[in-house]
Fold these 2 entries.
Entry 1:
Amino acid sequence: MADSELRQRKAKGDDGQTKQSTKRRTTDEEDYDSSSLRLDILRVLTFLFVASCGLSYVISSGESFFWGMQNKPNYLKPEWWKAKFAGPIYLTPDELSQYNGYEKGKPLYLAVNGTIFDVSSGLHMYGIGGSYHFFVGRDASRAYVSGCFEEDLTPDMRGLEEMYLPIDDPEIDSKWTTAEMKQLKEQELAEAKERVHSGLKHWVDFFTNSPKYQKVGYVKREEGWLEKLTVPPLCKSAQEKRKKRVPRDQQ
Ligand code: HEM
């Protein structure tokens, strides 16, 4: 056999082998590609799972790894976003009274200084039989400051500053001249009004900033509603807590 023929045959044989091994390599690469793709997907899913657990743990302050916290922050509640986009609701006092827990399917609403909050997530306090059930379905602003939960369930704040005014006592008060006493009383009145204002603001801020509750709207009242009511007297326990003026020589 001629040398050239032998080389040609060998070349032919080599070519077949090369094709086969290339085919095998391509199949191997495909296998490798699909298994590495599966591995990549698994890695991403594992990362997302671990990240989700970590985020849930941080947001819930260590309460849950799986978003199962009792009091989710507002931004995790669909109803919070719904209320945000729907805009505020306006309810008359009569309409507001339907949100006191007795009407099935309705949330629990309370109002402070005319602003309505959804306090449904405080069911054990505001639901029927709860220790603060009397606050729902109404604006009881006066009671938040006076602490008189029976007499003061009204939005009428008129005259409440009296709870912070000292009781007049002729003997103690005789140490001031008439003009001085007038000025002192004006100052006491301004301070008392400020205390009532900040007492009410405390609760408005409490409900506004609480992660459990959400602001939903405002109480709609007819014009001149306040003038139609009789000014409430200072409730008994607030009256009893009032003290005499601090004597001049002890101030
Ligand atoms: C002006 C007086 C007071 C007002 C306006 C008031 C109001 C409130 C309100 C609105 C809540 C619910 C807070 C929430 O939604 O998370 C609450 C809770 C609570 N208050 Fe008062 N409070 C007053 C005085 C008191 C006093 C004197 C005590 C103690 C003797 C007290 C004990 C409690 C307790 C224990 C809770 C938690 C209730 C629970 O988790 O079930 N409060 N208070």
Entry 2:
Amino acid sequence: MKKHYHVLGGIHGCMPDVNDIYHTKMEAREGLKWHIENAREDGYKYSGTLRDGYFEEEESEVRQWPNNYFEIVTCFEEDCLQDTDLMEW
Ligand SMILES: [Zn+2]
């Protein structure tokens, strides 16, 4: 079992649009931060903290009915790593 972290993002109740895999929580937080900063540059609003590893979309000028999220999830599934170059840890 290889502990790793996913940054997931997308619409609540759907398959995630974003599914990035990281070795450490620090890296996952950087990845999460990148997604939030990008979304904010596009005018979307998110509330949450990197510490909690969770951001929820808020109403904004570009989205009247917000339903998106980004989060960090801890995972132990080795299958996740098969298609990544992180297998060689
Ligand atoms: Zn996984």
